[in-house]
Each structure stands twice: as structure tokens, then as C-alpha cells.
Amino acid sequence: MRLTRRTLLTSTMASVAAPAVLRLAYAEAPQATLKLHHHFSAVSAPHEKFLAPWARKVEAESGGRIRIELFPSMQLGGAPAQLFDQAREGVADIVWAVPGSMPGRFAKIEVFELPFVLSGRALVNSKTIEDYAAANLQDEFREIHPLCFSCRDHGILHTTRAIKSIDDLKGLRLHVPNRLAGEAVQALGAHGVTVPTPQVPMALAAHAIDGCLDPWDVVPSLRLNDLLKNHTDFAESALSTATFVLAMNKVAYERLPRDLKTVIDNNSGQAAAGMAGAMWDVEAKAVADTARDRGDPITILAAEDVAHWRKATEPVIATWQKQMKERKLDGGKLIAAVRELVAKYAEEPEPQPAQSPQASQPAQKVTTEPPQQPPQAKADAVTRPKADAPAVEVPAPSTPVVKPVPAAATKPKELDIPL
Fold first, then answer.
1. Residue 340: enclosing H or E segment and its boundaries?
2. Which of 19, 84, 261, 331 has the fewest CB atoms in 10 Å of its CB?
3. Of all residues in the chain, what percent carry a pLDDT higher than 70?
4. Cut 0.85: pTM above it
């Protein structure tokens, strides 16, 4: 067959155009798809106001080359206390985990759970823990790539009767978020109870507990508004809090191209910690304001009153320091470092609620279908007992409901963590 000039030109142009089409298709496809797993519901403030916006920001700054799929409500299986190991083993690429749900495993981060060591503001404490982590937590978290550390809003006493002094607390049974909060409550004459968080309303209705030492956001999420009408806060300090780590699988991070690692790095550290801390503070203020508008009594103990509570809980700190000494750690030095950092960030401005997104803004994709099972080798690395998973809240009709994947059968031994 004779090759005409027209045929030759057509063939040449097609061969030149083909790589360009392939390059365009490649540019439109993400180079990395990362699974972000956590235990909060898809309609919770942590999901809607921190994790989803953080994921959108990473995607936008990567030019779409990174895609982050969010799996709320433990959709990838397991229990909340297993999230850290899921990131370590690669069951998930990124997790938002609570170190306090694994008591004794991360000794140096426990300083943030001690009574009256921290500020009453999550933003201050989140910036504090991020600096503290850079200096003190590299060894404890070496098995993962930490993106940021943060602190939840501090614990408020939500009770069936007014608490204005230590004497009012005597004999009460209170749900607590972690081991050291339980010890602090006991030092004050009450009893700390680790009821699984979703069962707190049932425990209250059955008179098994008399209240809880939890942050403000649990009140609407557990629908405690009608059960606990009295709230006691502490001026300028925190009786308890919970820590979080946004942890990434090391292999998932290392396989990213250099420029995409930079995108992740730019959205890590203080930038992400501040974003999380601000979210907790804004949420706490909104819930507290709602309680005031509803007419609930809110007692805020002044600094001179808190001094008595601080004195009563000093044995908890002393015992913790002895435990650290047994691990060849200087607990006093760690406490001093935290207090110095709290003072450094004490003047951070109060965060303001974010503006409502424009209607034209695309919504963050949340996985609603059961995800594919991870490779068997990785799945075997984490036992998947039936989780005490947080209940999924019923959203407004316009909000898609996220259906969690049922987990397997047995129950973990680790402490329960707050919603």
C-alpha cells in the first residue's frame, strides 16, 4: 500500500498528540489516595470542622494530586483504641487517635492529662503539646509519622446537682476520659467510672453514675441536655483533658514525591494543631452559650477556689512522677516544660467561628459504601473486636448519613475514650 503525504501527516500528528492526551489524563488523576480513619461520626464537629477542612486544604494545595478519603465512625473496622496501630500497620494511611486510650504506652504524653497543669483553652494546649512533642515525643511516636498533636477542650463537671466546692463532689460517681482523670476525681472524694461513652446516657438514667468529667461537646452529642443541668468549670485551668495525634503511616509518607511531602509538611505541626485547638474552643463556647440560654446553672470557680482543688490533687501528680522515675524519666522536668509552654501561648487570641461555606463550594467526599478490605497481611496485624463505637448522630434531612461498617466480635480491654 502506497503511503500518501496525507496519511503520513495524519499518522505523525496522532503520534505527537497521544502523549499529550496521556499527560492530561495523568494530571487529572491523583498520584496518591490516602485513607483517613477516625472514631467520630460524620456529623460531629471534629469531622466537619477539622478533619474534612484539613483534607480539603491538602487536596487543594496539592493541585488535586493528593486525594484524602475520610472514613468516620470506625468504618475500616476495629476499636478506637486500635487506631494508632492501624496507622502503624498500614490498615489506614492517616488516623486521628487518642494516646490516652492506651494507658501506659505513651508515658511522656500523660503529663497533659494531669490535673491543673494545663490552660483551660484547647488552642493554647494544642500549640503547647505540638512544641512539647517536637522536643520530647519523637521516641514514643517513632513508629508512625506524626502530622500534629492536639488537646481537646478541658473537662467540665456535668452533674445532677450543683458543685461549688470539693465537699459537694464527695461520693459522686463520674464518667472520666482517662486513667489520670479517674485518679484526680478519686483524690477529690468522688469515684471515676470508665463507662463506654455511648452508654453514658443509659448509665445516668439507671443511676449508675451521677455525672461526667467531660468537655462541653459531649453534652449535645450524647443528648445530655435533659439529664445533667448543672455544670462546673475552672477559671484559667483544666482538671482534665484528652490528647490526640494525627498520625500517618511511615511508608505512605515516604513514598510520596518530594513536592507532595512538602504539601503534607505545610499542613502539619503548628498549622494543624492550631486548627484543631481552635475548633475545640469554638465548639465549647457554642455549647456553653446554648446551656446558658437554656437556663442551666453554670458555676465557674475562681482562682482562689481552684487552689483548694489543686492542693487536693497534688498526690496524683506526685504518684505520676514516681511512675516516671521508675521509667528513668524526670517527671518534674516534663511538667515544668509544659507549664513554660502554656505561659508562652497564653495570650493567643480567642478563635472565632468560621464563616459558612459558599453554596458553590464542593463538599468533601465521605465514604458511605463499605470500603475494600485491606490486604490480608495488614488486616491480620490488628485484631478487630466489636468497638464501643460512638453512636452516629441523626443529621438534618439534607445531610448524607454515613453508615459504619460493622466490626467483628470481641471487646477491647483498653479504656474507653470520649466522643
1. helix 331-345
2. 19
3. 78
4. no
